[in-house]
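Hi all, long-time lurker, first post. I run a small reading group and we've been trying to get comfortable going from sequence to structure in the token notation. Rather than ask abstract questions, I figured I'd post a concrete chain and ask someone more experienced to write out its structure so we can walk through it together at our next meeting. Sequence below, copied exactly:
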Amino acid sequence: MLTLLVINMLTLAFNIHLVEAESAKLYVNPATVFALPSETFKVDIKIADVVNLFSWQVNMSFNSNVLTFVNVTEGDFLKMQPEGTQGYKRVEEGWVLFSWITVGPHPGVNGSGTLATVEFRVKAIGESVLNITDPLTKLIHMFLPPVPPGQPEYEYIPYTAENGFFTSGILLNPLDVEVDVGSIHFRGEIAEFYILVSSMGRPVNASISATLYYSNGTLHEDLSASKELIATGLYRVPYTIPLDAPAGTYILVVNADFCTRKGVSLKSFLLSPTLTGLNAWLIDVHGDIATIKTDLVTIKVSLEAINTTLVSVEGNIVTIETDIGFIKTDLEVIKARISATDGNIATIQTTLGTINGTITGIQDDIATIKTDIGDIKTVLDGWTGGTTSSIVTSLGTFQVLVLTTSTLEGSIAFSDNVLTVSLSGPSGTTGTTNVVIPKQLVAGIESSIDKIAVTIDDRQVAFTYVEQLYAYMLSITYTHSSHTMKIYIAGLPPTLPPWTLYIIAAAIIVFAASSSMVIYIRKIRKLTNR
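-- Answer (accepted) --
Happy to help. Here is the structure in token form:
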């Protein structure tokens, strides 16, 4: 392999002389580099205003107590030669020699560009010159054959060199500490404090202590063990503020230590005892952590820590009482869903607990459920139904509620104490219909649960019922088809026994025969009188 390591040998074997021309410029870019221990950095070896560069060689020295050589890669200046280039590298303690030469008899390259990129790793705090002004650093021009006898084949290209400089900067620049704690926090809140440590505008990982003081200077809590590194130089300190923490001003003091440098910063915040009066809304729940938005800030709290109790509901808006004040939210936010039904008794599951209530109405699959904290409307999965219009009796005005797993065809009719429902469903499947009849309605029409009867397509069927405090809940099961179901609240109308029908038929026959005889006799008399 032909390498520029033999450049000095060529000067002995051939008549090589220095080019009498304007100098090129060889330099390290960037000229000054800053990095921290364990970090790596790269610098480029640049050339400017060179003419006929065929090959080159750089011997770079550096402070091996501070830096370690990692690698060198060729730049693009000579790389586009027709047959490419060949390179060489030699590494020793405190210096590295590297070179590239054009392959084949091709003209050199003119202009400016990058010869190579050198990578170092920082071993320790300190400084180093990235020195390229060395006798072994050479730029070469080759004369293309045929070369006349007595004329040199190579010649050196004159240049000026500019070294680079590295520093860790620790001894020259301060350690900066920034703290962000927010302006106001609340009891029970999971507060998040952030700390940024930097030097010369670059983040650094430092030793951190974080201490929370009360406004009178009393130590409140050491938060150092809670810190979390989330990015270089950036720390998060989560802190759940106790429910019994005194209201007032708190101060977070942060001390940072990095490579013998120290920094300190502080930030204060106000602790408010309550959310009441701040238009607090629960906007999200993830596990036990709730996000609450107020007129001032958005906070996170543990639901278990603040002891939530549902106290009222109006439409879709729920009011929640907590240890830190009253909060409002939407039923959707707390994921209010009917988790179980037993007739018209429903259990509503929310992220804040369960609510029991009575289904008092249903329109399609939306049920109205009466609870101790108000009426709740929510989806009743798998059921549809409806209610009758008002039924007036001597004991008051009532409605009958129908819940069904079938498809309800048309409206629910009530006439002459008979409830009529048209139902349908997929053939071969089973349907269930629950009918909730107020007890006072039954009593108002002078009936009883024992008298109530149910027919499907005019055939009487059996049913089961549950007696509740204020109503009877009838349950009827059947095979799906198109059906007409009737519930006779006052009982089935009376039917005549079979023998009664025979008597009526005989009487009709006798009456018909008698009528015929009378008519016949009258005709005979008329004929005789003539």
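A couple of things your group might point at:
The first strand starts at residue 17 and ends at 18.
The chain is about 10% helix and 55% strand.
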